[in-house]
Amino acid sequence: MIHANLSLTDATTRIDGPLLFAHRRVDVGLNEAVEVTGADGLPRLGRIAALDDDFMTIEILESTTGLGLTGTRIRFFGEPISFSLGPGILGRVFDGVGRVMDGGPPIPACTRMAVDGAIMNPMRRKKPEDFIETGISTIDLLNSLVRGQKLPIFSGGGLPHNRLAIEIALHARLRHTDGTTGEVAPFAIVFAGIGVPFETAEFFRRTLEESGALGRTALFLNLASDSSTQRLLAPRFALTAAEYLAFVEGRHVLVIITDFTNYCEALREVSASHGEIPGRKGYPGYLYSDLATLYERAGSLQGKSGTLTQLPILTMPSDDNSHPIPDLTGSLTEGQITLNRSLDREGIYPPVGVLPSLSRLMKDGIGSGFTHADHPALANQLYAAYAHATQVRLLANVVGSDGLTPEDRVMLTFGQQFERRFIHQDRPRTLDESMAVGWALLRLLPLSELSRLSDAQIAAHIHADGESA
């Protein structure tokens, strides 16, 4: 940061939690970075959150313990909060405001980037495409993730979303246009934990380090004990690092952020501290536009070789997908992966609910030239068959299994096998392995149920062994 020669002493009028209220005696701007130093001599980073002609409100990003109404000095930087970045950020661990916390040397800075992000010109955006293999069958085969997409995971309290997040970080890889897998370009992970307990943060760090994946990961950890104002900046610092890797170093970057619900709760807390009029469920009326400033930082740009893909994770309060957080997220992103509590209770991992999940950009990254020519048809057939099996299961709950026709019993068996053999997996699968499991399951069905497959596909994959379907 460039330090400006502007400062105020003893201008503080009130301190309320992470907010400091002061007289406005200098010409400053909204979101400008400041440094607040109390009588204890410890500098604290902050930013101007609100102002009028006479007063200003400063969000302190660290503990306000030790600050008083007298002896407090406010120093202004004359610019928004920025992040100094350079080669070597991969393999490092940062806190929620971009400070190195792994005991290593500081990052050699070659550029500074505002953490609020640069505005992407819509005319320069390229259509997201190219398949990313995550190792999760329900994502890779049925709800494929493509480069430049933003595809959230909707979870619930107690579901294994943190485990799923770390496994995707470990196993995600790009796929050549000839259908083979591998790293066609430098591939990096930016992993951010927002408001996570210390044990969870240590789990993320230790797992990435022991697996060797930390070397291609920039890890940002905002702890539950950190201030709510710092929580608002944690995803912005992580996305700024991702933009540097993607659009300066030219890498393909996958950003995994968990948990966006903690971010939204911090936004509600800070908004209430400002005295703002609450909206739905107490969240500020600008929650939609605030989330948009984060989600819209995904994509690819013409003239830039790198791409930025987002996989944000949020927990739905009371498993309610109509809650403001998942509701607004769903309208800002290209689909969602929904975790199912019933599957989790049955011991199925990962408990992905296939029917409510959707990837709107899947068609742009699969099929001939990307994955496999039969991928779209197989995905459509599996989805249709499982939807039918789910309907039969509901019918069986009403009339009992004895009231089902032989065809219905076949569908019921298919649904059970689909959950136990396809959704459930005890290790990562390649796309080819996922497709092999899918074809094997379809051999359980009569030909009348295979309406989404062509005769050639049935001959090649269903009757390939000479057996009847």
Give a summary of the structure in a few sentences.
The protein has 469 residues and is of the alpha/beta class. The protein is 32% helix and 25% strand.
Give structural notes.
The protein has helices at residues 137-140, 161-171, 198-211, 228-247, 260-273, 287-295, 324-332, 341-345, 375-399, 406-423, 431-442, 455-462, and strands at 6-9, 12-16, 19-23, 32-37, 43-51, 55-60, 73-80, 82-85, 93-95, 111-114, 125-126, 129-133, 145-147, 153-155, 173-174, 187-196, 217-223, 252-258, 299-301, 307-315, 335-339, 352-359. Strand 4 (32-37) and strand 5 form a beta hairpin. The strands form 4 sheets. Strands 9, 11, 14, 16, 17, 18, 19, 20, 21 and 22 form a 10-stranded mixed sheet that branches. The chain has a 7-stranded antiparallel sheet with strand order 1-7-4-5-6-3-2, with no helix packed on it. Strands 13-12-15 form a 3-stranded antiparallel sheet, with no helix packed on it. It folds into 3 domains: 6-80, Thrombin, subunit H (Beta Barrel); 84-364, Rossmann fold; 375-462, no CATH class. The protein is built from 12 helices and 22 strands. It starts with 5 loop residues before the first strand and ends in a 7-residue tail after the last helix. With 469 residues, the chain is an alpha/beta fold.
